[in-house]
Write a structure and sequence with these properties.
alpha/beta; 6-stranded mixed sheet; about 40% helix
């Protein structure tokens, strides 16, 4: 079974809490454990950011990986955000509303091959899930939206890009601030529900709109 967190991510969570202040608390949870997730969501949040995920480049991948391995990727990248959203809804509705922001990936867009079919399929499903949950704004007062970043300028991402030959590096990576700004916008803008915001390298942020018979239309934010 692949490991879905690291000492680095654990340390980062603790450091983030220190930056926020005494009101913040870091809790490490295996999102494949339904009981642990239910315990976490008992805090009844009004803002939920489904950012946990990963495994885009873990090998072996489907179809070479065994079922337990590729199922774990689907669990973390798709089932977990579905479960946390489901568990958050009653508390959000009782509180008068809330916001859910899913973090997708450009791996879930388009029709090109991807090194990890299970990861890209989960991210594609997460994007589609977001759009189908737009009616929750009317029924529960809960807005569900999705940020879809390309390769993000995390410390690891910057190291990996730098290690590539110059001709293969492509545009600059998506700044972390662009991702966090998009999340804040979805949390605070009460007019947005069921929307998907693409953060592509070398391009301005744009909303994706779906129409029958076509792929994605760019709509300026």
């Amino acid at each position: 079974m692949p490991r879905w967190w690291s000492r680095t991510s654990t340390r980062g969570g603790a450091e983030t809490c220190e930056l926020i202040g005494p009101s913040a608390r870091f809790v490490q949870v295996d999102l494949r454990d339904d009981a642990a997730v239910a315990g976490l969501m008992a805090c009844r949040p009004q803002i939920l950011v489904n950012n946990a995920g990963g495994g885009a480049v873990l090998t072996p991948c489907f179809p070479d990986a065994d079922a337990a391995r590729w199922t774990a990727s689907l669990d973390v990248n798709l089932r977990a955000p579905m479960l946390t959203t489901q568990l958050a809804l009653p508390g959000m509705q009782a509180a008068g509303g809330g916001a859910v922001v899913n973090i997708g990936s450009t791996a879930g867009l388009g029709f090109e091959p991807h090194v990890s079919p299970e990861y890209s399929a989960a991210k594609a499903a997460l994007i589609r899930l977001t759009a189908t949950l737009a009616p929750l704004q009317a029924s529960h007062g809960v807005r569900v939206n999705c940020v879809v970043p390309d390769w993000v300028a995390t410390p690891r991402g910057l190291r990996e890009r730098e290690a590539l030959p110059p001709a293969e590096r492509g545009p600059e990576l998506v700044p972390l601030e662009a991702v966090t700004d998009a999340v804040v916008r979805f949390v605070t803008d009460e007019t947005l529900a069921g929307r998907v915001l693409l953060l592509d390298r070398g391009s301005e942020p744009c909303f994706l709109g779906w129409s029958r018979g076509r792929s994605a239309d760019s709509i300026p934010p």
